[in-house]
Design goal:
Blueprint: E1 7-9, H1 13-35, H2 49-67, E2 73-76, E3 80-84, E4 89-93, E5 97-101, E6 108-113, E7 118-125, H3 130-155
Antiparallel strand pairs: 1-2, 2-3, 3-4, 5-6, 6-7
Helix pairs in contact: 1-2
Length: 157
């Protein structure tokens, strides 16, 4: 394992679902916007061009909300690990990481820290099956390489 190796992990299945859902939402709201014409019912109001644009805008904002779930990513190298979840991101050196966990039945992997905290890594989802397992193995190899380098450093003194 070289010091310059960079492991980058992103979820696959949720990204496909979110992009398809975002596109479908924009199309549906676009269709609804084109159908907004004429009177509003029994009232005196009528649908205007602004109402149609507002519906398209709502569809775009909803699609952007879906696309937030494509944000998770994990990057790791010999120095540490950077975790970006849907909301929030963390940059941790390997010194604070006790282990990489992917418990049976858990929706995603997590980092176990020395202060007994668990940091979820939403980018490594159980739905991605083998891709997630390989990602956890790669992170564990980097963590083990860091631990081995610490042992060599203390043994060399």
């Amino acid at each position: 394992m070289s010091d310059t190796e960079l492991v980058t992990l992103r979820p696959r299945r949720i990204r496909l679902v979110c992009w398809a859902s975002a596109a479908a939402l924009v199309v549906v709201f676009g269709l609804v916007a084109t159908s907004l014409t004429g009177p509003t019912g029994d009232g005196y109001g009528t649908f205007q061009r602004g109402d149609q644009l507002a519906m398209v805008g709502l569809g775009v904002f909803g699609a952007l909300g879906f696309l937030l779930f494509t944000r998770p990513r994990v990057e790791a190298d010999a120095r540490g690990v950077r975790v970006r979840n849907v909301i929030g991101s963390y940059e941790l050196p390997w010194e604070v990481v006790r282990g990489v966990r992917f418990d049976r039945g858990a929706p995603w992997a997590s980092l176990e820290l020395h202060d007994d905290d668990l940091l979820p890594m939403v980018a490594l989802q159980a739905a991605d099956k083998e891709l997630a397992v390989e990602g956890v193995r790669a992170l564990r190899r980097l963590h083990q390489a860091h631990l081995a380098a610490l042992v060599e450093g203390t043994a060399g003194r």
